[in-house]
Amino acid sequence: GIQVEQSPPDLILQEGANSTLRCNFSDSVNNLQWFHQNPWGQLINLFYIPSGTKQNGRLSATTVATERYSLLYISSSQTTDSGVYFCAVILTGGGNKLTFGTGTQLKVEL
Amino acid sequence: DGGITQSPKYLFRKEGQNVTLSCEQNLNHDAMYWYRQDPGQGLRLIYYSQIVNDFQKGDIAEGYSVSREKKESFPLTVTSAQKNPTAFYLCASSIRGAGWTWGTEHTDTQYFGPGTRLTVL
Asked: Do A98 and B110 touch (CB under 8 A)?
C-alpha cells in the first residue's frame, strides 16, 4: 500500500520561531489533507491540498504532486500550536480511504 | 450546531465483553468512517460507509462490526474477538458518497468527531 512518511518526528520550538514540516508519499494521490491534533485528541482540519499552495493566517502549505511531497509552514509559532500534525492522503483511484502518516509532535515553549 | 458527536468520551470494558461506540452527525454527509489511533501512531481505517445500508472493511476490520441504518448514525461495535482493543477511536464524515469518481475539496474533506478512549480492564 501507499507509504506516508513525515519528518521530523519531534520538534521543539521557542515561541515566535518558524518551522517546516514535511510529508513524503510513495504514490500518486488525489487528496492530501493536513490535520492538527490538539492535546485532547481532537483532529482539526488545516488544509485540503492535493497540489499547489494555500495560506491561512500563520499557516501555509505547499504540495508538489509530481515529486510526491507536501510541506506545512508554521510562522511565528505560539504555544497553542503545540500538538501533533498529521498529513493524510488518498491514493489515486483509492475511493475515499485516507492513509495517515505517523505525525510530527510539536511543542512550542515560552 | 452542525457537527459530529461521539459518545461516550471514555469507556472501560472488561475482557470478553462487546461494547458499542456511538457516532452521530448532523452535517447531512453521505460518507462516514471509523479510525483507530494507538499511542504515538497515526490513524488507521477500521470501516467506512459511503451510503446508508452499505459499508466496507478498512485496513484493520477484524474484531469490529458496524451498521449504517440511518444516514446520521454509524455505530461501531468492538467485539470480544478484537485482541487488543485499548485505543482511541475517531469517527469522521464527508459529503462524498457512492458513485463519485473524482472528488473536490468540498466533497472529500473528512471532518472528525472528538473521539472515544476505550480501555480494556
From this structure: yes
